[in-house]
Amino acid sequence: MDFQYYFSPDSWIRRKIEQNISPSSALEGDPFVLWQERILYITCFLGVFVGPFALVPSVWWLFLQEGLTHVIIFDIAIYLSIVVIFLWKGLSLRVRAASIFFVCYVLGTILLINLGPMGAGYIWLLGASILISNVYSLKAALYSLLCNVAILMCIAGAIAADQLEWARQLEKPLQLWLVLGSNFLMVNIVVSIFFALILKSLRETFQKEKQMRIDLEESENRLRAVFDSVESVSIQGYNKERQVIYWNKASEKLYGYRAEEVMGRRLEELIFSEAMRKDAVADIQAWYEDDIAIPAAELELRNKFADAVYVFSSHVMTTDRRGEKTMFCIDIDLSPLKQIEKEKVQYEAQYRQAQKMESIGRLAGGVAHDLNNLLVPVIGYSEMLANDSCEADARARFLNNIYEAGLKARNLVRQLLVFSRKQPIQMKTVDLVAVVAGFEKFIRRIIQENIDLQMVAEDTAMPIYADSNQIEQVLMNLSINAADAMPSGGRLIVRVKKEGIDMPRKMIQGDLPAGEYAVLSVEDSGVGMDDETRFKIFEPFFSTKGTEGTGLGLATVYGIVQQHGGNIEVTSVLEEGSVFTVYLPLLDNEEKDVQDVAADDIESYGQETILLVEDNEHVRELTRAILQSQGYSVLSARNGDEALALIQREGAVADLLLADVIMPEMNGSELYQKALEICPELKVMYMSGYTNNVISQHGILDQGLNFINKPFTKKELTAKISSVLSGQRGNA
Fold it and tell me: Which domain holds residue 481?
């Protein structure tokens, strides 16, 4: 029940009086108690401000006309008591009600005794009963009624004893008093019970409202707790002016604003980008004014730091009992999905790249053997003829050109096989620091003089399991690439260091597992590259050098690193430079002894007998010619059966078996096993132009075996044979 109709809702006087007169506990506590306080407040207010209008005539009549001075004094005392009760803010409700009841009861009793039915005593007694029924209960109203009955009976006894002056002036005063008293009691009973029942109903109503308010607050708190605990769902509330009225914890996390920062601020000032602001505000206004709902959609919003935030946003409009509308935005953070989509695109690109490399690798592997066999006589004969020709002879220059072209063709085939991971490699334990240090002179020869080369390495061995020639190939290709990025000169830094990785690290191609690594980095101060170029540089035949580049240099680097169980990372800034970082698995110092990798190929001579087995006639004839030119005795055969027949016929004369890996009917490994039965001291060296996987299928590509790739030069072949003959026999 609202009692604001007693005074203007905006009345400054009413607010001030209530604040200064009503106890603070009533204003802040139970609304039913506040209602009772207001009943007393109105009663006291009327008594204080309206009472003088009744008191003044009473003083004039009772004092001047009747001479009842004691009654006037008592009336004035009662009025002053009401003023005190009205102004005494510290009195509790029950004390204030009991005081007013006592005042009314005493005043009514005195007036009835002194004035009888002609006075206002009945009114004060009835008022006391009504007041007590409104503040206390029906039981208290019944006690008040009994008090009134007792007063009336006492006065009736006084009338019967002829003790009252006013009764002597009436005819049959006792009968008159009994009639008036019975009617008064009837009215008193009806009114007291009526107000007591109203009081009970109001109390129950207020209790229900209070319980409903408590339930509503609990429900709101539960919903708020749910909304605040959902970390991935942002919920915001906005009024018609698009001002924030609700902002949950997820919104703080998603958009970076704390709730206290955004309350009262407009939506478009917080999370809308400049491009969408105008249309979004128009859509919101259309919903408020024309009930045109905003459909759910994926949006790109902005956080506190102006970064893009991707959400799926849906919207709800609510209307309260006053007709006020509130819009709630429910935003689901799509950042994890966007990250998954981004990774999916990257994985798809990596998969396509792997398929492309696999296709090219199959093509390269398919023609590698034939190309290598064709290049053997081209390189070998041109080298031998050039060595036999006079330097002044023009034919020597032509032969050198043929020889160099053959070497370039050989390198091209090897690069194709390397990036497709099919190039046969000869792995051994080497020190990366030593490999890089030994290659420094070569790097200085291939870069321009206006480039400052700096070699930085830790003063400790870094053993890795690798093919030193291919590691040098990596360093050479990266150095050439860096030099090409600095046509006007600059700084080239080659670093070697150790690095431990605690958890998998994402690389430009795949992930790098946790572990200990030897790290080789090549840093330049060149033109740099953008991200689009950075993600393509390892693709075969991709080049930024136009027709001058083959597009195989970095693809070869990537293939070599992959073959060695490592990975490579690239960072670059336009106009500042690039850093290529190669990670190679580091071996424990106790795992393997580091082998010598610095020895140069030396063209050597010998007098031993070599059994040459090669099914390709051109390769066989060239190889025999090279060996014979260096002083070796050569027995040649087209296949395994011919070779075994020669061994049986020549006895133990052969010192070394030089055999092709893949031959008809009997491969090189099978031939060597049978040859050992005849000649136990026979040593072996294999040669092949096939790819890595084909050779391994025939049981040849094992650690410690003597092996040379086709095509080879005269110098490479003789140096390798000299090394095998002077060393220990390899196992088949």
Answer: 425-585
